[in-house]
TrEMBL record:
Residues 144-209 form the HTH luxR-type domain. The lineage of its organism: Bacteria, Pseudomonadati, Bacteroidota, Cytophagia, Cytophagales. It comes from Rhodocytophaga rosea. GO terms for biological process: phosphorelay signal transduction system; regulation of DNA-templated transcription. This is Response regulator transcription factor. GO terms for molecular function: DNA binding. The keyword DNA-binding applies. The modification 4-aspartylphosphate is found at D58. Residues 7-123 form the Response regulatory domain. InterPro entries: CheY-like_superfamily, NreC/VraR/RcsB-like_REC, Sig_transdc_resp-reg_C-effctor, Sig_transdc_resp-reg_receiver, Tscrpt_reg_LuxR_C, WalR-like. SUPFAM superfamilies: C-terminal effector domain of the bipartite response regulators, CheY-like. CDD domains: LuxR_C_like, REC_NarL-like.
Length: 212
């Protein structure tokens, strides 16, 4: 990262969101949007190509969602600073994002000044949590972890379909539920199984006899 400019990649499947972010960031000195992605797979390629300093990543994206992309980016590009910028305010999404390597978690209704502050903070190597997010993190960290939290029947269905290699779109069609509902189940399954990615999830499901 140069001292003058923070190079940024935006990942969101909605063009209006990407355009709005670019417009806002363009007004802020020291920021340069170098690329934008509409899905997680494209994000991985753009990070390899442009080597940005910071990535703004949504959770709900096709092909590869933000959480899955986050895990791969954190392993492959340890110097990249990752900010989750999403509509999801549920604790499970926040905690999973932070445990997967995000340096900041912001909601899409964030004020431009706070977005600017978060980008500068993580670019300098820090972490940024506003009071609302910090409170959720503290409250959940103070709760004792159960030895092994059981999957609900629906989560077990989702787990088995994930292990069959089905995408979120395919699972949604199979179970007649929304993609966002599938994503929420996927996050819960990963958390309850204490799995870091899909491959780890399949291995643990086999070990526990949850799949054949």
């Amino acid at each position: 990262m140069t001292q003058e400019t923070i190079r940024i990649v935006i990942a969101d499947d909605h063009p209006l969101v990407r355009n709005g972010l670019k417009t806002v960031l363009h007004t802020m000195p020291g920021f340069q949007v170098v690329a934008e992605a509409e899905n997680g797979l494209q994000l991985l390629k753009l990070i390899d190509e442009y080597k940005p300093d910071v990535a703004l990543v949504d959770i709900s994206m096709p092909q590869l969602n933000g959480l899955e992309a986050l895990q791969q980016l954190n392993a492959q590009h340890p110097d990249l600073k990752l900010i989750m910028l999403t509509m999801h305010e549920e604790p499970e999404y926040i905690l999973k994002s932070l445990s997967s390597g995000a340096q900041a978690y912001l909601l899409k209704n964030v004020e431009p000044e706070e977005l600017q502050k978060a980008i500068i903070t993580v670019a300098k190597g820090g972490k940024y949590y506003n009071p609302t997010i910090a409170s959720i993190v503290i409250n959940n960290l103070s709760k004792p972890e159960p030895d092994e939290e059981a999957l609900t029947p629906r989560e077990l269905e989702v787990l088995r379909l994930i292990c069959r290699g089905m995408s979120n779109h395919q699972i949604a069609s199979e179970l007649f539920i929304s993609i966002r509902t599938v994503e929420k189940h996927r996050v819960n399954v990963l958390r309850k199984m204490q799995a870091v990615n899909t491959a780890d999830l399949v291995r643990k499901a086999l070990e526990r006899g949850l799949i054949d």
